[in-house]
Structures are given as C-alpha cells and as structure tokens.
Amino acid sequence: MSPIKNKPDLISEYYLRTLSADELKTLQDLLAEDVGAREEFVRVGRDEWLLHHMHHAEGQRIIHLLSRRSRRRSIQVIAAAAALFATLGMLIFSQSATISEMIASSRPSAPVIANVTDYFAVEGEAISVVNNGHVRKLNSTSAIRSGDRVIIPPGCQLSFQYLEEQTDIRLGGNSLVHVKDVEGAKRIRLDHGYLSAEVARQPEGRPMRVVTRDAEVVVLGTSFEVVAEERTRLSVIRGKVQFTSLDRSESRIVSAGYFSDTSEKLEPALPFMKLRIKPELVQTLNFSRKKFMVVDPERNAEGFMVFDIGAVKGRILEARLRLRVTAWQKEYGGRGDLRLYRVDPDQQGEGRRISIAHFSGGAGKGKDLELDLDVSLLSAGRNAFVLTMDKGGNDFWFSADESEQAPVLELKIADQR
C-alpha cells in the first residue's frame, strides 16, 4: 500500500494517479464522514479544472498537461459529487467570469510559505498560479502560498526559498507543481517537469515530501534533482533520501552520487557521474553567420552539431542538450516549435532524420534552452544533430562560440569505476 495515507495527501493524489483499492476505500470513508474532507475535495477539484482550462483560455501550452490522468471513475459519495458538480458548474457555465477577470479580482488568502528568488518568463508568457479558485500571475517579488499550483511554461524558470530557512527550490520550464504546507511539513507535488532542491535540515518528524505520479521522495536535508515524465527519475547530489515507487509500494534509501527511477522493476540505485561534452562542430546549414547557430524557417536556416561520445564509459542514464540563446542586433530571444533530429555525421544534415527531441515555447536572450534527448537513440562515437523550426515561429540565434557558450551535451552516466 502507498505510504501516502493522510487526508490532504489522499485527496490531492486522487487527481494525480490511480489510487489503490485500499486508498480509494479510505478516501470514500473520509468523504462520507468528514465535512472538511468534502470541502477540501471540492477545492482541489475546482483548482484542477482551472489548471486545465486556463491554458486553453490564454492560448498557453504545457506539452504534457493533457497526459494527466482521466477522472472518469469518480468517488461514489453523493454529497461530494453534488458539491463538486455545483462548484464546477458555476465555473463552466458562468458567462462573466473570464480568466482575465479572475486574475484581476483574485485575493489570495492562504498563508505565505516561501518567496520567489529568481523569475524568468519570456515576452508574452507568464508563470501563473491557481489556489482555492483564485488565479494570479507571479513576478520576481511574489510570495508562494500554501496550496499554490504553479504553471511554468516552456522556456521559463522559477526559484523560491522557504521562509526562515535555506531551503531552495528551482523549477524548470514546462513544469506543473503543487506546493503545500501540512502542519509544518513541506509537500511538493510535481505533476510534470524538472525540480532541483537544496534542502536544509528539516524538523524531526516533519520531512519534506516530493510526490510525482508514480513516486515519492522523502527528504530530511539534502540536495537532489527530480524529473517527472513517463517515469520519475531521482539523482541525489548530497545527503540521502527515501525513494518509493507508488505503483509497487517499494522503497529504498538513495545516497549522494546515486540515481534511481521508477522503471518496470525498482532496480538497485546506481552510482552516477555527470559529463559535459563539447561539440566537435557547430554551424548553420543554408545560412552563414560566424559565432552563431541560426534556426530560421524563413531562411531555411538549420542548426548542425556534432558531438563525439566515443570515450564515454558506462550506461547513459540521461542526456540533455544545452543551447545558449543570443541575438543578432536585437534584445529578445526566440519562440516557436523546435525539432531536433539525429542524422549521419558525415552527410552534413542530408539523409535520414530521426526525431530525438522537441521544444515548444520561447526562450530569452542570455538564457539556456534545454532539450532532453531520448538516450536510446544515441550511439557510441560521433553523434550529429540537426535543429529545425516549424514555420510561423520567431527565429532563434544560438551562441556557437566558446567565448560566449557553445552548445554542450550534458550526460548523466552510470559510474563504472
């Protein structure tokens, strides 16, 4: 059985994953007996609805938002279902409550638990928050409140620090996260995306918990990274954490320098190391600009990069291509749908193209655009990539010069030493 047993966690988890039969029965009993639980169930259901529909109303996209699991199998408690229907019905059928009006009239009242320490959003994008029916947009001086569901579009970044302690959270673009305080204990639900944390020593009996669709990380004080996609991947930089597969109710302690994930079977944690591979070649196809790699569909300009990973020993666990966004006689970056293909390194972008990564969104000048690669498509030796943009986008210029910051291939590998 899952270790998530208390009322607030079970209600939140109902909207994130398939509960076990025992968990579902526990939640049904709670909703039948506890008025407060029914009210909380309604509040969470309303915010989940807002999260989904806000993006359609504002034209924003989080690529994997629609992969959140369907709620067709509803809780069979008449009072809860009726209350939820009434609440959502008012939102769905109201002709006056537009998203913009909700943002303008929102008055958040939940307690402040953290403050934003770093904020970046590209022009035309916003990092938005839903909390108890209120919708607001964050900025560099915003507070984070208990119950906030934070939506970070592709190309944007957000960091915050908890009050009265040196616990820092960094969230990458294309992330969806729910932050909450439960009786003094920190709870973070990462629905999708990337999270890294530097966690100060937590009070006895009140560890921080980071939950994804299929895993739970219990933290007393450490530094770690979590990636939540089709499965959850954990890398521990400092200290130790407890890592639990919720699908199989299996747990393990993962120490510093070790990696684990929720693959089909929870294998023993692996020691890992990080490598940064510099490019053998960076250039623009069909368009010449020194010190830049240009991607522009109007000019038929495509990026071309070659990396040699022949000297890498050990299984590749993660691979990320990091590109520094720059500009040519302009202050902004770029926006659009970028597609990365693996190609034959000896054919200068010609021949068969195999899709290996995709980015949809914007990134500003001076920021890094990150593409997570399908490691199964990498091969020993030289790997070449072509970067293209769909028509209708705003061209990207990337640094190709080492003095600025050339593209780099970041690898996380199982350490065989």
**Helical residue percent?**
10-25%
N-C termini distance: 37 Å
Low-pLDDT segments: 1-5, 53-106
Kindly give the count of domains.
2
**Which class of secondary structure composition applies to the elements?**
alpha+beta
Give the overall shape, derived from the CA principal axes: globular
CATH class of the largest domain reads Mainly Beta
* Beta-strand fraction estimate: 35-45%
Tell me the Rg in angstroms.
23 Å
Keywords: Membrane, Transmembrane, Transmembrane helix
InterPro entries: FecR, Ferrdict_sens_TM
Protein name: FecR family protein
Transmembrane segments: 75-93
Description:
The protein has helices at residues 7-14, 21-33, 35-58, 78-93, 99-105, and strands at residues 112-120, 128-131, 134-137, 143-145, 149-152, 157-162, 168-171, 175-182, 185-198, 208-211, 215-219, 223-228, 232-238, 240-245, 250-255, 258-261, 270-277, 281-285, 292-295, 302-308, 316-326, 334-343, 354-363, 368-372, 382-389, 396-399, 408-414. Helix 1 packs across helix 2 (21-33) and helix 2 (21-33) packs across helix 3. The chain is built from 5 helices and 27 strands. The chain has a 22-stranded mixed beta sheet that branches. Strands 18-20-25-22-23 form a 5-stranded antiparallel beta sheet, with no helix packed on it. It is α+β, with helices and mostly antiparallel strands. The protein folds into 2 domains: 7-268, Jelly Rolls (Sandwich); 274-414, Jelly Rolls, CATH 2.60.120. The protein starts with 6 loop residues before the first helix and ends with a strand.
